[in-house]
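FIELD: query
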Amino acid sequence: MHLKISKRGDRRYLSVVQNYREGGKTKTRTVESIGYADAFADRYPDPIAHFRAYVDELNEAQRASKQPVTLSFARDEQIKAHGEPTAREGAGIVLAYFDALGVGSFFRARERATEGAPQAGRVFEMLAVERAQHVTSKLETWQARASFPRTCDFSFKEVYEALPAIAQASAGLVTHMNRALEGIRGPRDASVVYLVLQSFSFATANDVDSTRHLHGSGSGRPLVGLGMALDRDGIPITYWIMPATPTPADVRRTVDRLKRDLGAHRVIVVAGRTPHAADIAHDLTRTGDGFVINRPLRPDDEDRRAWIADPAGYRESRSGNYRIKSRITAVQGGSTCDSVKDVVLWGRDYTARARRARSERARYSSEWAALAQETQAAAAPGPHPAAQATPPADLDGYVCVASSEVDLSEAAIFHIYREIWRLAEPFQIMEADVSPSPFPVPHADHVRAHFLICYTSFFALRLLRADMGWSYNAAQVAQALLEMRGAHLRDNWYLFSYRSPVSDAIEEATGVPIARKLRTTGDMRALISTARVHIERAGSRKANA
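FIELD: result
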């Protein structure tokens, strides 16, 4: 194969072609149409040199795939004392999405302009790629760096030293990824924007100035809120650090900003438990916006308890693990009366989870009571998480949601509400992420760097799931990426043994032969390049479909 450069007017069109013999004549077939060279000028300093290197990688992979492989082992050969690094196809897939979004090139440009710490880009890639697959600490991620598809020759201290530079890059990288995505997929539909609200608590050991810009929870663990905007297709657009318990005014400022900056006609707020839920919902309805918000099950709400307990109206899943129903009620707000759709879902696994949590609360009831008394006396007004009313035991397993979207089905409303769970999973903060740290980092920088790492991994995973037609949930895709590991055999060879319907769907979405048993490190580099080009061209394929 070779790179063909065709002149079309003043422009040069690039394609990958292959010569073959037919009827005694040499003919050429197009393997892959790449596009005009100038369309890639903003991503690569020399697009032609870049794609020539890409063709070289394809040829290397093709040569390796056609040669039979013979490996021999002594019967008593021993495993090395500290094990062998694995080859990680899943990490390569995530890196391909990062490359398509210009993550690496963004950090390299900052380093050249002396705006970023050396290695900050590679530290970021390592941490964010791992976070896309599962939640693990920075230390564990660094300890497994030998298995990362790219060289990570930095110390653990340098990981923490890079965090302030990563924090400073947050706004620029978000803008850069949005532009890159629009460049390869076209304009995004932001006519309706989903604003997902979530709060997190952070440990503060060894961080500098740990309480600044954060809200105390009364338990020694500062709380911080996150607001993430998703476009109409469910792909992230941006995020902001917000108060852990935002007021209606906080939410209104964010909604107005989304409308101003993105041109959104309507914003739908998705939120879990918040003490200001009723006021936020009323304010959103007043301006024509919407909401999908958790409604805690209070022991004193007899009407809702009776409705929830009544078996009439529930629709049950085929497995019997879930049942759901809804009703439309009128809610008085000031001088207006709004229609709200109540949705209640019961889940067998939710019940087991609630009962485990109830058991834990019972074991530590005296400690919870003391903590509640302490925080009520010292904290700012408003309910503390430890002092909130516990739902009665007969309501274990039920989740209630209120929504302004009365025309949507209860399943569609609950699907929207699940966004806060999908957001919370990759953004989890582990104690080991902040304690002990080998290098003192300003806590505000630590928080900002953590959120950028998590946001980018979330972005890539959402884009992959969209390319898979949303056929699998985030946990299934992340688990498949994690399982796609190859064990080292000998020399440069790795053996892969994982295959599932999810990995087959990833293969189709990214255009790489994931089901191959044997790969070399060269094959891994080619996999990343092939997947990146396939991802970049997905928009034109959909447009021509």
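FIELD: remark
The CA atoms of residues 510 and 531 lie 5 Å apart.
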